[in-house]
Design a protein that fits this description.
It comes from Quillaja saponaria. By secondary structure, this protein is of the alpha+beta class. It folds into two domains: 28 residues; 150 residues, Immunoglobulin-like. It is 22% helix and 54% strand. It has two helices and nine strands, in the order H-E-E-E-E-E-H-E-E-E-E. The strands form two sheets. A five-stranded antiparallel beta sheet has the order 4-3-6-7-9. A four-stranded antiparallel beta sheet has the order 5-2-1-8, with no helix packed on it. The longest helix is centred in the first third of the chain and has 26 residues. The termini are far apart. The structure holds 2-acetamido-2-deoxy-beta-D-glucopyranose (6 copies). One 2-acetamido-2-deoxy-beta-D-glucopyranose (NAG) binds next to loops.
């Protein structure tokens, strides 16, 4: 008798922990997966300590969670060249918040355009000229995801080709962005 109740008790415990594990997998949030799927510059000129830029980006965000939803109120983009920020704007603002359900993805197209004073050193200017010859620039994007209850940040290290440079060697490569806490 004692042996059987022990077996029954332990099976119940195993069953309960299994249910808990599955529950956690199903309902726990997982970080959104953030990709820059395409990028190109129609302008990136540095004269008179001023950068004049026009950069188009396509972004895709996926919520890999099973049941957890993310409510986006805004996504802000910050663009950096050689560690200096040259552009900040909201890619999108949602009112009411955009509901990104588990397993679903959504895409956005945005253009960062304008001019900004940048103080590049001589070595940085020669790097700029090298990248100009190559036809693509190393640009870092930081996106701030304004979510219902918390904000998250992602960083993307991009090699953005000039649109005029249409050689296939400089095709933009789909880039996955990294989460920072
Ligand atoms: C982004 O997607 C649009 C179509 O949705 C496409 O026309 C465009 O070439 C893509 N790339 C960039 C950099 O905008
Ligand atoms: C460069 O900037 C200076 C001061 O900001 C201005 O006086 C000058 O006209 C500018 N030159 C050009 C070519 O834009
Ligand atoms: C983008 O939108 C958020 C939320 O509305 C706001 O806090 C933030 O200041 C905005 N950023 C810019 C650059 O306008
Ligand atoms: C630009 O950078 C140089 C050296 O890095 C510095 O001496 C100068 O003060 C800076 N100018 C501005 C306007 O920030
Ligand atoms: C690609 O580049 C070549 C040479 O720069 C140019 O002649 C051609 O028109 C370009 N094609 C497109 C589709 O932009
Ligand atoms: C030139 O551009 C290509 C494509 O973006 C990149 O893979 C390569 O590393 C670049 N070369 C240099 C010297 O920056």
């Amino acid at each position: 008798m004692a042996c059987c109740s022990l077996i029954i008790t332990s099976s119940i415990i195993v069953l309960l922990s299994l249910t808990l594990c599955i529950g956690l997998v199903v309902f726990l949030p997982q970080n959104p997966k953030f990709y820059v799927t395409d990028a190109s510059l129609s302008q990136f000129d540095y004269t008179n300590k001023t950068i004049q830029y026009s950069m188009a980006l396509n972004i895709t965000i996926r919520n890999p969670s099973m049941k957890f939803t993310y409510d986006y109120t805004a996504i802000e983009g910050n663009a950096f060249y050689l560690d200096q920020r040259f552009s900040t704007q909201n890619v999108s603002v949602w009112k009411p918040p955009y509901v990104n359900k588990g397993g679903k993805s959504f895409s956005m197209h945005t253009v960062f355009r304008g001019q900004q004073v940048l103080n590049l050193s001589d070595t940085q200017i020669s790097l700029f000229n090298k990248e100009k010859d190559n036809g693509s620039y190393a640009i870092v994007m930081r996106f701030i995801l304004f979510l219902d209850k918390l904000d998250a940040k992602v960083f993307c290290g991009l090699k953005v080709p000039l649109a005029a440079n249409n050689g296939s060697a400089n095709r933009f490569k789909n880039t996955k962005c990294k989460f920072v806490k």
